[in-house]
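Please check the following for our workbook:

***
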Amino acid sequence: MKALTSFLLLASLTLTGCYKITYHNGNGGGAYPSSEQWHHGAIYGIIEISKPVQLNQICPSGFAKVHNEISLVNSVAMWVVGSVTATIGLPAGLWQPHTVSVWCNSGASYRLQVDEQDMVVAAEVLEGAEPTDLP
C-alpha cells in the first residue's frame, strides 16, 4: 500500500505541470503588468468558470501583451483542492486556476479593483502613467 501511495504521489507531481503562453500585440508595454488576475476553469480547464478578461476595460488604448500561465501557486492550489475532492470521491480536476497578466500599449500600470461582474470599479496608477491615462 505504501508503494502505491508513493507511486501515485510521484505520478501526480510529475504528470502535472505549469504552462505559459504569451500573446504580443504592440510594443512591450510597461515593466509591470497593468492587470494580473486569476482565471478559473472546471474539468481540467475545459469549461470556463470566470468571465473572459475584459481587455477593452483594462487597456482602452489597446494591449501590448497578455500572458496566461498556470504558475506554481496555481498548481499548488489546484493540487490541494484536487486532493480534498478526491477524498470525497470526486475527480481531482474539477477546478483549474491560471493567472492572466495584461500589459497596456500606453505603458501605464494600474492596480484594478473589479466587482462581481468583473467590471472595473477603481484603478490606481502604479508606474509610468499620467492620471489622465486612467480608463
The chain has one domain: 18-133. Helices lie at 2-15, 55-58, 72-87. Residues 18-133 form one domain.
